[in-house]
Design goal:
Blueprint (H helix, E strand, L loop, with lengths): L2 H10 L4 H22 L6 H32 L5 H26 L3 H15 L7 H24 L2 H21 L3
Helix pairs in contact: 1-2, 2-3, 2-7, 3-4, 6-7
Length: about 180
C-alpha cells in the first residue's frame, strides 16, 4: 500500500508503459490483499480501499492494453508495412485520449485517505498469521473456483472462457503468494 502513492506520482509524469504497468501491479496486489482479508475481517475499510484501488486500476486498464498492442506492433510490424503504420497511428490517437482519462483518475485519487488506510489496515492484518488454516482454506476455495472455470474453457475452447479461467487462476496465485509465503 505504501508503494501506491509513489507509483501514482511516477505514473502521472507522462503515463509511460513501465510506470502504468508497475502501478497496476501494485494496485492489483492491494486489491487481492483486501479481498483476502475481507473474507475473514469484517472491517469495512478493506472494501473501501479495494474500491478506490479498483477505480484507478480500471482507469489504467484500457491505456495499458493500448500500450501493449503498440509494443507488439512495433515488434511484429515492419516500418514499410502500411497496415502496421495505420494501426499504430490509430493506437497513438487512442492512447492520447486514454491518457487524459487516466490523468483524471489519478488526480481524483484520495491520497490522504489511502495514507490513513496504509497505517490502519496493516495493523489489522497482523492479527492473522500468514500461512494459517484460515488462509489455507481461502487458497483451497480459490483453487476450487478456478477448477470449476476450467471445464467450460476446455469444452468450448472459447476465448472468454479461457479469460475467466486465467483470472480465476490469478486469484488463486495471489492468495498463495500473499498469504501462504512458505
Amino acid at each position: 500500500m505504501l508503494e501506491v502513492p509513489v507509483l501514482i506520482a511516477k505514473a502521472a509524469d507522462g503515463l509511460g508503459n513501465k510506470s502504468v504497468h508497475d502501478l497496476r501491479v501494485a494496485l492489483r496486489r492491494c486489491r487481492s490483499m483486501a479481498d483476502g482479508f475481507r473474507t475473514v475481517d469484517p472491517d469495512k475499510r478493506w472494501k473501501k480501499m479495494r474500491r478506490l484501488a479498483t477505480s484507478v486500476f480500471d482507469s489504467l486498464g484500457a491505456l495499458r492494453d493500448c500500450q501493449v498492442m503498440m509494443e507488439w506492433l512495433e515488434k511484429l510490424g515492419g516500418a514499410d508495412d502500411p497496415v502496421a503504420r495505420e494501426l499504430t497511428e490509430q493506437l497513438r490517437r487512442q492512447e492520447s485520449e486514454l491518457k487524459q482519462q487516466a490523468e483524471s483518475a489519478l488526480k481524483s485519487f484520495d491520497g490522504k485517505q489511502w495514507q490513513i488506510w496504509s497505517s490502519g489496515l496493516p495493523l489489522r492484518a497482523r492479527r492473522l498469521p500468514l500461512g494459517s488454516e484460515t488462509f489455507q482454506t481461502l487458497a483451497l476455495e480459490k483453487l476450487n473456483a478456478a477448477r470449476k472455470l476450467q471445464t467450460p474453457a476446455l469444452k468450448t475452447l472459447a476465448v472468454p472462457a479461457f479469460h475467466r479461467l486465467r483470472i480465476g487462476l490469478k486469484k488463486f496465485r495471489y492468495v498463495v503468494e500473499n498469504f501462504l509465503p512458505q
